[in-house]
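User: Before I run my own analysis I want an independent prediction to cross-check against. Here's the chain; please return only the structure tokens and, at the end, one sentence I can use as a sanity check.
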Amino acid sequence: MVATLGRIPWGLLVSVGEFGLVGRQAELLAVDALLDVGGGSGALFVEGEAGIGKSTVWGHGVAAAMRAGWRVLTSRGSQTETGYSFAGLTDLFDLVLAEVGRDLRPPQREALEVALLRGPPGAAPLGEREVGAASLALLRRLAEDGPVLLALDDVQWIDHATIDAIAFALRRLPTEPIRLLAARRITGAAVMVGAAADRSTVLGAAFAAERVGVLRLGALDGAAIGRLVETRLGVQLAGRDLTQLVERTNGNPFWALEIGSAITRHGMPDGQLPVPESLSALVAGRLAELTPEVREALLVCSALSAPSIEQASTALVDVADNPARVLDAAMTAGVVQLAVGQLHPAHPLLGSIALDGLPPGARQRLYRRLAAIVSDPEQHARLLVLGAGGEPDADVATALDAGAAAAHSRGAINAAAKLAEHAAAMTPRVRAEDRARRLIVAGELLFARGDVPNAHQTAEQALAESPTSSLRCRAGLLLTSIEYWADGATGWMEHTEQALRDAGDDIELQARAHALIADLAPDGATNAEFHAQRALELLAERGAAADQRTVAHATLTLQMAQLALGGGLDEDLLRRAGAAEARAPRPPMVDRTENYRGCWLKNVDELDGALAAVHMLMDVANAEGDETALSNLVMNVALIQLWSGDYPAGIEAAEEAIRIGEDINILADTAYFVRGQLAAYTGDFDWVHKHLPARLTLAKQGNVRGAGYCLAAIGAAQLLDGDAVSAAGTLRQAYDTLLALDIREPSCRLRLESDFGQALITIGELDEAAALVTELRTFGPRSSAPTTRGIALRIEGMVEGARGDLDRATELLEEADRVHEQSPIPLERGRTLLALGQLFRRRRAKGHAGTTLQAALDCFTALGATPFIALAEAELARTGGAPKDATLTTAEQRVADLVASGLSNKDIAARLFVSVRTIDSQLTAVYRKLGVRSRIELTRQLTRPRNAGKTIG
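Assistant: Structure tokens:
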């Protein structure tokens, strides 16, 4: 938005009278408003055309912040630095990292040191998230000491890597006293388009919309222009001359000062103002007055990325007898300035117009000469490209290769991808292998950057142009990953099988292909187990020379397959995966052994250990800024809480996982399915009807496992909403879908067997229910786990009861109850108690039935499992009601107290993160147990000095 000054929501700290800025008093009020220390983060963008005074207003804001005691971090963009990774971040953080870097965690400090070229890159390239997370940690640390101002001038020219890192950090610092003051150039009435506009958009999006102000600078009036040239240059203009100056310069202060400077040098021949037709012509005229050596000094300082005096002097050795004297003359002439040991054009227009004015041949010779003196691979490559004629050149392509590798090692993926693309384009066609290899590297980097369309196109091009089978294999594996994980295309399996054939006798490539097939598991867990084992067999032939990343990948994939098949966790396999991972470059968090193991603990019923491990991993993900890993971890929290029986916490976690996933544009399907299961078990069937049908449609387009999970959640809702026939059909589809993938472990099927078995028995499909029991008992070592064994015993007992063998049914259900006491999933024991109570009622054992059903009801009420509460209450009613000494559960007591405090059921549901129907059911139980019939009676009873005749737990 472009805000009027009066609408910018910050107060005033700095007096306008302290500034000598001519004609910009209102604008200074906006800058003052930005520096109000209250209210968290915020941003102000100062924009306008070239020369309008953006940098001057920006500079006054910097000075004001310094006087007010702010920590000020500055960076001024340069057109020649736009492509140099982390040039802006170096300006911002170089000094403060030395000051507070010791307070950061070692990985964060090391990431910044590598990005800022203060330390050597590690064995594995940095990721963009690592640099962003390190920037976040540094800014958070600085904010602990007081308010921080990030001041970016000419933001349209600050490199992508810096903008991405800063935006990443600012999005996560909404409450800290951190402000952004950014000046950006616009052309005419519009902000610069393309990449330049994207930089501002990315930064602005890091803040809440109401915390972003835009201050557009307009022309100065005649009085202000007159004061400006008189104050700065001692030139007095009045009447027609001043009017002409304002008209011809459109009130642009830089243009007016340049004309005033020309008057001081040349006077006003014939009484005429020296007003050229354009600002560019005016600057070109000024440059023409410079000596050739001074003009060369300006060109060097414009073409290089903020050179030191020593570097600029080296560049001038061949064109000047005394480079130091030439640099002094350039600074005296006002075309070059020195700041913090680095040389810059005194104004961006001076540098850009000087370079644009060179003939093409002279410009190329300048860039080639400068390329020979720079040591940074990225800058060397870019200068060589600028010095080349645009035709393919093997030497330039090699330099671009090195530049891409250097940028990648520092975490500048975007810059690395562009350099890699350029390297492929600059490779002569006769060097087909080099070109294909570079296309593959470019495709990998583009995919890592998230540019899926270009990554896909580049991978296809690499596959088509690869002259050798090994290169075709690499290209095919890349194309497989892109199509499977990002595009949703269906041809990925064909690419993988062809890649395996193209691997030929190359053991390493064969292993990579087998590991990828195992990971994608197109034919289920048995096939995945085969390919993972084959990959490890091949890697074993390589011995110590085997690629350890592939070893870790194949080992974890083997464990994943064995878990799905019912083998549980193999700690030896996990140790081997961890050992291989430790010998390889550190992988992203989602691929680390510790992440897999922490999440897999829930699948072997170690719910407390899983929750502790996942929370620890979430701390790591937050510290590293890895939102992809965080989304998956929060989803795991939701599933753990579902099984543990803390439904409010599960719902909160599932919704957070969905939000994170949608914010970063990754699939949040599993979180939706877990949320659907929670909705079903708390009676929120409307949520299921609203959200899951659309998710099922999407899942059926390529996510077979996800479709099974979605069907499981929908089937649970149908069952508990009273439609057992539809539920049986839906759950059968879910069961068959997942079983076709060889997913035998119930915890890997969202434990749909309880609902499926109940639905089958309800509609009389007893043989199918009995077959389900057989499958649960025979799928593998994990079939003897208490939760699974208890479910199997319950379903079998219900089947026997339905067939009329009540003695056998009672025996099985009582055994199921004993087994479920060892399970960490309380709902399953409640369901077994409900089935056993129903059986006791059928056998006319009223006392046993009442006690057992009350225990089931207490279990369901504590969970907030609304549909099950209704079932238990209905069964209790058939037995004559609850025992007279019934006590309130913790959950019921909490609801009763909130009712007594005057809250409505809706308010209570919102506070406890459950549905209103859950509160209705719990309140019904409270009324029954306390013998009251209304909220008024309940309130009276709870607020009496003594509560006679009832025990409140």
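Sanity check: The chain has a mean pLDDT of 86.
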